[in-house]
Every structure is written in structure tokens, then in C-alpha cells.
């Protein structure tokens, strides 16, 4: 009997790979080990669930038994992987020894919570899986004042979503919203569309303490905020707990075929670092899963990303971007009208990137971007 393909992780990366592999290989057993419930759900929608009154159950597309049945998988939810014996090709999970022919680490990334003091730091909410979303929705039902930590992509989407029914204060160490993604004119355009959000830029949370049913949130400049919920969206860090024995950088180092430094071991998704980049977006993960499925089915296939647009899901001021949109070596030109704007970045006279905002669509510019 063939040794199974074992996939650790049931997020977009793990399940995309399982489905793509099964379409090419109907015989090799596939085991998916999930630290959570193993549900299939659209993770990007977590930051939009409040305004749409969506429960975790409403977001769930298929449960673990459904995925197992539809794709002929063995899915083991609520399973803790304790160790991996790369020499013997065995995964140890909840005391069981699971042999593998090939192993894929699709373990994702962990929300980064900046260092803070106070007796309620452990109650700060993050929003990186369905279990965390359940806690988030429960806490939001208890009050109207929300502090969001972080003004990057997820923080911006959360502020937009929550501002439709809550009083939101966003705290970020940077000078503006989406500072590392878009030029200032776009940041200001989005901030103008969110008049109900209070901005605390150039600041950080120093301390969070529980006061009755609420929280006292102290900022570095001495201001104290009262909140019913505190949500941290300060970024992600690749999970490396299972990477002992593998070469790592920011993430698990892989080659173009997503092979790690150990034979028959691959890494995929938010935990993987390829060509010095960690790419926590759906499109590169989907492309990686398709390429890796070919490789695991016996046809080594390097992943090719091409030009990958990113959408900031803020409906009152939609934003698209691609290419190089941050850096001191870029020069910018602006095309603005009553529908919105397109900002183009240039490097050495060549189009390096673009940001489209409002009602403007920049996708036609993808083919004009300089090669990486």
C-alpha cells in the first residue's frame, strides 16, 4: 500500500492542495491534520463578517466530514502535531505515529501581538481562523467601543467593517493608514471615507486592563481609551514550531518546487518563504497549491507567480494594487477624476506598480508592469 500524503493544516493552502492533488491522483491516501475544526471557509471574509451579521456557521462552506467525503480524504480535526521524525518519515500527532510518503507543512502564520502590559493582554482578540472569529463575534455583542491595533490591510478592512455599527479607534505606529502599501493620497482618501473612525497614528498601545466588563487602553502618549473590545491586526508571523530540522528564515525556506531542506517535505502558504518572500495572499497560495500538486503527482513543477494584484476590501473606497507600491526609489504620477484615481509608480522610467482607488480599475496595467 502506498504511504499517504500527509498535509498539516486545513486552511486555504492545505485544502487547495488536497483538492488539486486528488484531481491528479485518485489512489494515494491523503491525510489532513487540522489544529482547528477542519471547516472549509473563505478566510478573507472574516474581516467583513460583522457588517454582514455573519456567524461562523454562516461562513462555513463545508465541514470536515464533508471535505473528507467529497475529496476522498482522511481529515483529523482538533489534532495537535507534537513532533516530526524526518529520518523515519513519521508525524507524531496526539500520541499516534503517522507514516508519510510526502509531507506538506501548510501550517499558516500566527497573529503578531505587540508587547503590552496589563491584566487583560490575554483577552486581546485576533482574527486568523474560525475559532478566533467566534470569540470576536461574541465580544462584539457586548458593547459598542472597539480599539483596533494596526493600520495595515486587515486593520483597514476591520475598521471599515466595524465602523458601520461600532465606535472605532484605530491605533498604529505609522503615520497613516496602509502606510507600507499605498501612497499618501490613497491613504487619505480611504480615511476620508471613514469619518466615524478615530485615528491614533504615530502611537501604540502600552497597557490594557480590565475595568468591570470593559477595558482601559493606555497609549504611549498617555491617552487612555475605554473599550468593550480590543482587536489586534498588527501582522502575521509564519508558524515555525514544527520546523526544527528545516532551514528557515522568516518562514520555512523552500525552492521553486516548494521543497524544504528535508527530502519528501514541502511547505506551502503563509509559513513558506520562497525567493526571500512570504506571500500571505490567496492568489500566490492557490498558484503554489496547483504547482505542488503536479510535483507530488510525479511531475516536478516550479511555481510561477507572475504579476499578482492585491485588493483591499473596503467597499466605500475600494483599492487595487500591484507591483512595487512602496519604496524611496519610486517616482509617482497621479491620474485623478471624479470616479477615483490611479497612481502609477515608476522606476528608471519603467512602470513598476500601480494603485487604483475609488471607482477606477487598474487591472489593464498589469501587462505593462516591469518584470520582477
From TrEMBL:
Domain Rubredoxin binding: 302-360
UniProt superkingdom: Bacteria
Subcellular location: Cytoplasm
InterPro entries listed in its UniProt record: FAD-bd_OxRdtase (IPR050260), FAD/NAD-bd_sf (IPR036188), FAD/NAD-binding_dom (IPR023753), Rbx-bd (IPR041364)
Keyword set, alphabetical order: Cytoplasm, FAD, Flavoprotein, NAD, Oxidoreductase
Residue ranges annotated for the FAD/NAD(P)-binding domain, each copy included: 5-275
Cofactor(s) required, per the database record: FAD
Family of this protein: Belongs to the FAD-dependent oxidoreductase family.
Family annotation (PANTHER family): NITRITE REDUCTASE [NAD(P)H], PYRIDINE NUCLEOTIDE-DISULFIDE OXIDOREDUCTASE DOMAIN-CONTAINING
Protein name: FAD-dependent oxidoreductase
Amino acid at each position: 500500500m502506498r504511504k499517504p500524503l500527509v498535509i498539516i493544516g486545513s486552511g486555504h493552502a492545505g485544502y487547495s492542495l488536497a483538492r488539486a492533488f486528488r484531481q491528479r491522483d485518485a489512489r494515494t491516501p491523503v491525510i489532513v491534520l487540522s489544529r482547528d475544526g477542519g471547516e472549509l471557509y473563505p478566510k478573507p471574509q472574516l474581516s467583513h463578517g460583522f457588517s454582514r451579521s455573519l456567524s461562523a456557521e454562516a461562513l462555513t462552506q463545508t465541514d470536515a466530514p464533508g471535505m473528507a467525503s467529497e475529496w476522498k480524504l482522511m481529515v483529523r480535526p482538533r489534532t495537535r502535531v507534537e513532533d516530526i521524525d524526518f529520518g523515519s518519515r513519521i508525524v507524531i500527532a496526539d500520541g499516534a505515529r503517522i507514516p508519510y510518503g510526502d509531507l506538506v507543512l501548510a501550517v499558516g502564520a500566527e497573529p503578531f501581538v505587540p508587547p503590552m502590559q496589563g491584566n487583560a493582554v490575554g483577552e486581546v482578540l485576533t482574527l486568523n481562523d474560525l475559532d478566533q472569529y467566534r470569540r470576536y463575534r461574541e465580544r462584539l455583542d457586548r458593547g459598542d467601543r472597539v480599539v483596533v491595533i494596526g493600520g495595515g490591510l486587515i486593520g483597514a478592512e476591520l475598521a471599515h467593517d466595524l465602523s458601520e455599527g461600532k465606535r472605532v479607534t484605530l491605533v498604529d505606529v505609522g503615520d497613516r493608514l496602509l502606510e507600507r502599501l499605498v501612497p499618501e493620497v490613497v491613504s487619505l482618501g480611504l480615511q476620508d471615507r471613514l469619518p466615524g473612525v478615530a485615528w491614533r497614528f504615530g502611537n501604540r498601545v502600552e497597557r490594557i486592563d480590565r475595568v468591570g466588563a470593559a477595558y482601559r487602553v493606555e497609549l504611549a502618549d498617555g491617552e487612555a481609551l475605554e473599550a468593550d473590545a480590543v482587536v489586534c491586526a498588527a501582522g502575521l508571523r509564519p508558524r515555525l514550531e514544527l520546523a526544527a530540522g528545516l532551514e528557515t528564515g522568516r518562514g520555512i525556506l523552500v525552492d521553486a518546487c516548494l521543497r524544504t531542506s528535508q527530502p519528501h517535505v514541502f511547505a506551502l502558504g503563509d509559513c513558506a518563504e520562497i525567493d526571500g518572500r512570504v506571500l500571505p495572499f490567496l492568489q500566490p497560495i492557490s498558484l503554489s497549491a496547483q504547482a505542488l500538486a503536479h510535483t507530488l503527482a510525479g511531475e516536478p513543477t516550479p511555481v510561477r507567480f507572475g504579476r499578482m494584484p492585491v485588493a483591499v476590501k473596503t467597499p466605500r473606497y475600494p483599492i487595487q494594487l500591484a507591483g512595487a507600491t512602496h519604496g524611496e526609489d519610486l517616482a509617482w504620477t497621479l491620474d485623478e477624476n471624479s470616479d477615483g484615481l490611479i497612481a502609477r509608480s515608476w522606476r528608471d522610467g519603467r512602470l513598476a506598480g500601480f494603485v487604483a482607488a475609488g471607482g477606477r480599475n487598474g487591472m489593464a496595467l498589469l501587462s505593462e508592469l516591469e518584470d520582477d
